[in-house]
Amino acid sequence: MTTNHYTLKVNGKEHQVADAWAGESLLWVLRERLGLPGAKNACEEGECGSCSVRIDDEVVCGCLVLAATAVDCEITTIEGLAPEGELVDVQEAFIEAGAVQCGFCTPGLLVTIDKLLETNNQPDDLTVREAISGNLCRCTGYGRILEAVNLAAAKRREATS
Amino acid sequence: MSITIARSLDHALTTLHENPDALILAGGTDLMVQINRGYLNELSTVIAVNRIPELQGWKQQDDTLVLGAGLTYAEMEKSDFAAVAPALAQAARTVGSPQIRNAGTLGGNLGTASPAGDTLPVLAALDAVICLRSAQGARRLPILEFITGVKNNARQPGELIEEVHIPAAQGHQEFCKIGPRNAMVISVASLALIVDQQNKKVRLGLGTVGPVPLRPAEAEEHLSTNVNWAANTVSAATLDQFSTLAAAAARPIDDHRGTAAYRRHAIGVMARRTAARAFTEETA
Questions:
Q1: Is-contact B215 B208, C-beta < 8 A?
Q2: Looking at the 3D structure of chain B, how many domains does it have?
Q3: What span, in angstroms and rounded, lies between the C-alpha atoms of B70 and B104?
Q4: Beta strand B2-5 with B45-48: parallel, antiparallel or unpaired?
Q5: Average pLDDT for residues A71-75, to the nearest whole number?
Q6: Final residue of a domain: which of B111, B134, B167?
Q7: How many domains does chain A have?
């Protein structure tokens, strides 16, 4: 088994990854090597979106990124959305709208919605539904999730006005 | 497993020359699934090509649309791209989820060569040419010669998919896809209709209804010769026959996503609908 040494920049902090199997996904390395279990592991084939993380400006499935190739970029996970002990508007909105049931899809949804609102803080319903179409909630709590997006969008508009 | 992150086209081709059987990692949306499942040989060499500047983006070069193999579905969805290649933009928007479209690439769709590849029927109908490059040189293949079978293509060891060239065509373009829902769907049957107004030709590409994308020549010929090009209209009888010929040209199979009979029926319906949107149906 070939090992690999590389550096990943996650949530603004550089992490050394040593003695890792070259085939490990970014999701695996985040959770099992770097102590960042926020991104969830469910399907490992890009279906469910529970592993959604941000690489530079794009939201991608962490399970479909070969960790050793994710060097020289900014990786942001749910742990890095807000400073320690604080919440971003989307997290507050999820709590206020009761948009969390089992919670497994929540980190991926938060990362996805945070990015959506960054590009568009007044998204229409279709835009929201398409933006979160890759984040499956098997509790099927979409009504409150959509409510939370509207709430978060309003918070963000208020903050930027 | 060893990994090379190629930083330039030369870097990738040199590495590929030394490891002709290396696995090419573009967006990772297909290959990583295999790696996660442990299907790959521990001794494989992987060349990551998503940092190669020469493979990024697209440009209009005279009468040809030049697409880098690293062009992502998300880039193909954008309005500037949709303005020059509407059917390809439509197809890109139906791929997986936004997360998948941010990572997955045109070159990857060609490299995987799945019968359900969403861009393949569009590329077929657009008469796309696939440009391959190795350390020894470059060659070009029409899409229908490039895709050789189920998950098989004509790429040789040591070669990399570099670009896709699409000749300009003015006219209606449309992509259609059947699946159980709108998002996160692998195609059950797909179809692309391209109208070339200048040459008075209609080109049809069928996807997921054969081992490779299909071009139903008889259906194309029937519609092209029976359209009233001056008025941009078509008779109901012509549309019906076009639909029948398109369905007859499909070579579908029964599998877990659908039956051959359903797929053939769907091709007929999509062929008629897209043609009726491209040309006005004459009232009797």
A1: no
A2: 2
A3: 8
A4: parallel
A5: 97
A6: B167
A7: 2
Span B145-177, pLDDT tens digits? 999 999 999 999 999 999 999 998 899 999 999
CATH number of the domain that residue B273 is part of: 3.30.390.50
User: How close are the terminal C-alpha atoms of chain A, in Å?
Assistant: 55
- B186 beta partners: none
Query: Contact at 8 Å (CB) between B252 and B260?
Result: yes
Nearest-Cα distance to chain A for B246, in Å, is 31
User: Given this model, what pLDDT does residue B125 score?
Assistant: 98
Phi, psi of B152 (to 5 degrees): -130, 140
Give CA–CA dist B213/B124, Å, rounded: 7
What six digits make up the tokens of B126?
């657009």
Helix, strand, or coil (residue B115): coil
Predicted complex ipTM = 0.96
A43 touches chain B (CB under 8 A): no
Last residue of a domain, one of A49, A78, A107: A78
Could you tell me the two tokens for A46? 């890009």
Where a domain ends, among B145, B167, B189?
B167
Q: Could you give phi then psi for residue B153, rounded to 5 degrees? A: -145, 175
| Residue B181 and residue A129 in contact, taking contact as beta carbons nearer than 8 Å | no
CA distance B107 to B117: 11
Tell me if B99 and A21 make a contact (CB, 8 A cut-off): no
Q: Are B28 and A68 in contact (CB < 8 Å)?
A: no
Instruction: Map tokens 């994308």 to a residue.
Output: B213
CA R_g for chain B: 19
* Encoded tokens for A38: 């926020």
Nearest to B36, CA basis, from A40, A62, A10, A30: A62
CA nearest to A107, candidates A20, A25, A49: A49
| B118, HSE (Cβ side, Cα atoms, 13 Å) | 28
Q: What angle do CA B97, B213, B143 make, to 5 degrees?
A: 95
- In Å, how far is A135's CA from the nearest CA of chain B? 8
Residue pLDDT, tens place only, B264-275: 999 999 999 999
- Domain limits for position A60: 3-78
Task: Give the mean pLDDT of chain B.
Answer: 97
B278 touches B228 (CB < 8 A): no
The partner residue sitting opposite B5, judged by closest CB among A63, A69, A135, is A69
Q: Does A4 touch chain B (CB under 8 A)?
A: yes
**Strand, coil or helix: A29:** helix
Spatial CA neighbour of B125 closest among B90, B79, B163, B160: B90
Q: Hey, is A62 helix, strand or coil?
A: helix
